Please model this.
Amino acid sequence: MSIVANNIKKTFGRYTALSGVDLNVPSGKLVALLGPSGSGKTTLLRIIAGLEFADEGSGRIAFHGEDVTDVDAGHRRVGFVFQHYALFKHMTVFDNIAFGLNVRRAGRPPKSEIADRVNKLLKLVQLDNLGARFPSQLSGGQRQRVALARALAVEPKVLLLDEPFGALDAKVRKELRRWLRKFHEEIHLTTLFVTHDQEEALEIADEVVIMNNAKIEQVGTPQEVYDRPASPFVYQFLGNVNVLPAKTLSESGTPTQLTSAQRSEGRIYVRPHDIEVIRHAPGQPGLTAVVRYMHAAGPQARLTLEQVQSRDIVEAELARSELDGLNLKVGDLVNLRLRQTHSFPADYSI
Model:
């Protein structure tokens, strides 16, 4: 069941939440709407769900070619999972999952069929022995899986998740997102989820839609958006990056295709892990820098360095074993070689 949104505009007073957004979610894919707070991703999700409507005269929403633009949320057959679960505290896990089926006015299944469907869902979300418990007796991760099962109980056409792991601690988030990826591979239900967590989107999504300032900046696979960012915003939003004057390339010994104008006036972007750190030696190619701080906890070491000539601060990442071999201390001089850099033709200001 594909999702297509065309020319979606949404304003709240003078504030523009969405500015003519087009989106195409292929059938059966797990797609992430990724962006900073205020970028419009949750508003777009709610419009697709029918919980909000686009500005009058703008936009069209279609599920697998069927126009649902003017259809209310109750008739769109959408499963929606909220960040804070929204479970009924006075109901058991079983009754929470069965709720959407029990309140149907038309087409309500027999009780035996509801029970069978709920039990299958409990097993699917790995909670088959917890149906009699109440939400207060569950962990955050378990409650989120109950919310997911409840959304699936009504057999939705598509599944929409709004920051589904936002209320969980880091360890549980990692466990649940791995579980969601495996879960999606089992059910193959078209799923669109909102997140501001770059790592989360890149780890589990088939496709990533990056939003900023009420528009879509780029759409692509996790590898495409990370390796081939379409704009400076995408490059800086997806992980740590150093932004340096392009003229520093001539000092770093890095091959480049920059024009003379870009080299003198533009900027280059380089990831911390794409910087090679070597002990300083006179006449050696690379940017000369001073070690200002070293963080060596864990398998990766992070260095904060200050470039001698420009005074720019540069961050580099390297393996602990590599750092140990360099035998550096704060205040030492090093040379930095930029293995891989990126630039944008329209980006000319430092």
